[in-house]
Design goal:
The complex is a heterodimer. Chain A is an all-alpha fold. Chain A contains 21 helices and 2 strands. The relative contact order of chain A is 0.11. Chain B has 4 domains: 119 residues, 3-Layer(aba) Sandwich (Rossmann fold); 82 residues, Alpha-Beta Plaits; 116 residues, Rossmann fold (3-Layer(aba) Sandwich), CATH 3.40.50; 102 residues, Alpha-Beta Plaits (2-Layer Sandwich). Chain B starts with a strand and ends in a 5-residue tail after the last helix. Classes of the chains: A mainly alpha, B alpha/beta.
Chain lengths: 481, 468
Amino acid sequence: MNFGIVIKVLGTLLLFESIVLAVPMAIAFYYGENTNPFLFTIVLLILTGSTMVTIAGKSKKMQSREALSIVTFGWVLVSFFGSLPFVFSGVIPSMIDAFFETVSGLTTTGATVLTEIEGLPKGILFWRSLTHWLGGMGILVLTLAVLPALGVGAFRIFKAESPGPMSDKLVPRVKDTAKILYTAYLGMTLLQIFLLFIGEMSLYEALVHTFGTVGTGGFSVKDASIGAYSSSYTTWVITFFMIAAGVNFALYYELYKGKWKSLIKNSEFKLYISIIVIAGILVTINLFLLDHYEGFFEVLKQAFFQVASITTTTGYGTTDFDQWPAFSKAVIFVLMFVGGSAGSTGGGIKIVRLLILGVVIRREVLRLLHPQAYLPVTLNGKAISSNIVTAVTSFFFLYMLIIAAGTLLISLEGVGIVTAVSSVAATLGNIGPGFELVGPTQNYADFSYPSKMLFSLFMLFGRLELFTVFLFFIPGFWKSK
Amino acid sequence: MEIIIVGAGKVGYKLAEAFEIEDNNVIMIDVSAKALERADNQLDVLTVRGNGAQLSLLKSLKTGEKDLLIAVTSSDEANILIASTAKKLGCKKVAARVRNPEYSKQIDFVKKEMQIDYVANPELETAKEISKYVIKGKALHMEDFANGRVVMTEFRAKNLPLAKNTRLKELDIPGPMLIAAIQRDGGIIIPHGDTIILESDLVYIIGEKQTVNNYCTDCGKPSVSKSAKKVMILGGGKAGYYLAKNLIKSGVNVKIVERSEERCRYLAEELPAALIIHGDGTDSDLLKEENIAETDALVSLTGYDEENLLLALLAKKHGVPKVIAKVSRPNYIPIIEQLGIDVAINPVLITASEILRYTQGGRVASLSLLLGGEAEVIELITQENSAIVGKPLKALNLPRGLIVGAIVRNGEVIIPNGDTVVGPEERLIIFILQSEVKILKKLFYKTRGGVFGELWNSYKGLRDPSSI
């Protein structure tokens, strides 16, 4: 491993984080709150970052090994320093709790250890939500977009960090691709801020909730999450943007270039929309027949908000779905394993993988009928390589394996099986809320420190798509070539 | 620059690699997903599967707005068609690889009528390179820079009049020239004062033309013996044909050993002055019968690298003074010198250098790739605001992998030292490892450094809508 380039890029990343932290510091200053927690963190970041950049020496070409290390270490380091403001301000006194909260933010999970949110300093809460926005498209991809000269093999970082089985580049250069993706992201953010602001939210609330939505995170500044806002307008705006953030951002580029057809032809997009619509209708019918809410439109609103929130792995809530009838709860539970589209800010298994798995199953069935048939696995009408198919099937198996192992470990806490399974699925899938003890109105505060560390690991696992982090547990990765 | 390369074979890949390192946007097109996979995994380029001659594909990639298209598929006809189509679509510069000797006579017509700006012929270039070596009998690489005022050449250290096993700084080197690099054990070393030159090294020298020439002649031991009179070529393919033709023109006796009867007939018709032998070059009895020990030089140009290397070794064993092998895969090059073969020639690198030299234009006056592309020698012209201008070289913190070999100032060749200050509008001949090529951009364009500088640059980039 070439540690020089790894340390250099990580140092740059920390310097970049110090600049970003100036934003919540300004917010804290504006509201007349204590700015020292941010100031101390920024000073620490600058000292550490510049030391790392100085000692790193001359950079050399980056191979996959280095890129993977940069991504994993990068996320851990940024999370560690990002948790310092919580500790310094005393909002979350325990380091492990604060780390959990920051990882949850950056991985756009939205699981929290805070029991009461309202009344906490606005600057700190702003930072908590900003981590969603930063983590949504990838912190390193963001760094790539604004600091293009990270290194020769920078495109490997992009491949390691971007979600989905295949990372599609839009233009030849990764840095330009990153710029395009962030432009779309920024555009979506600004539009939502505006739409929420003209509703019932203040500018501050609009900003914070937009970060949580477009990053598919789920941190709110209200104890009752989006349920604190009474107007249907706000709910529907957030529902729309949650769904929009779960779409592959490459498709927005196609739209921008006037290729409407590619959106309609894209099988992942079609399946994604179908899943939300069908699940939404099923839940609506179930709730409506059992008279859970007053009026059809109220039911429709609640059903679609919750379905969109869980499918896109956002985790906002307008109601406690743990109180729903069994069938609706089952639908929500199944959706926890779906996730957003590849190349979106959503987490989970991702629609495209399910699509490929479906084609693989269909192929196996057809092969029984026609043993000699030549059946390539196709996606959007194009055959995909067998390497990708293998990667997708192993991803799915590893995902389920981690859910199983995680459930066993979390059960040691003495919590119920539903809590254990749903908490692991909610952290690994970067969703946030689960059922029972981790339900929409609950939080993760009562788990022990080892469990919280485990959850933090699961969140990183999920955000970096398992294999990137998993590599670090393989001894061969550390040996020199 | 916006560049499209059609054909992801050896040359296509090498070109993409060279362009990518220098911050160009490269799109690669190939019909084979397998060929593209390697480029996808190793390079920061966009790969597109499809037939490059398809108009709809070229249109959808906006070929008309690109700066350069290079067609290097395996078919000459397709290359001409692709390049010509691209030009018609409005691509600024187009280049095509055309190898067939039958077309080589109509290149000028093709260039003019099909509007192809540059036609590369790797086999012809390879043949030229080999005949230079075979006929002139001097060093293989004799690259000219600054209109021939500066040359770079390579020598075996044992042939040079250097005191062996002494430190570089104690060596007595006459006049304006310097040892820019040493090739040892398959790698390149940029030497410094304390480096000791070993007998087995291959030494790259950059210097003023006359000085270098005198130095080589004065030493009494020219690097290679006199010009060859009798040459045997194994493999009568395109490169073999061009080489034979070139050699015959200079009055050399040429024997070609070719396996295919049909090809033999063709060669016999086209090259009446050469002796064509129908047989297998790997047959050692045949080679003995044809008096391999008596030939002055043997050139192995069959289609297989492995065969070429083995044949070259066989010839060396029979005592042939000059042995040359064609090796298309760059990864083999580092081990070849250890095998004792005089010269391994790589058509891929030759073609890539040629095309790069043609396409770089402007800023880069000349360029050649060395040792499988691991290093390159590049000739640049400084500008008023280049970062390298106005400071002594030692204050610039140049990386170890870069050496300024020579400066041409008002027509005079200067070999720089740490205190030399470079001025504007001067020609620099720089020897640089491929891993450091990026720094050239920094040295020749003024940019701000550091995190804030980069933020500023990317802000400027964002304001320019074409970058998105």
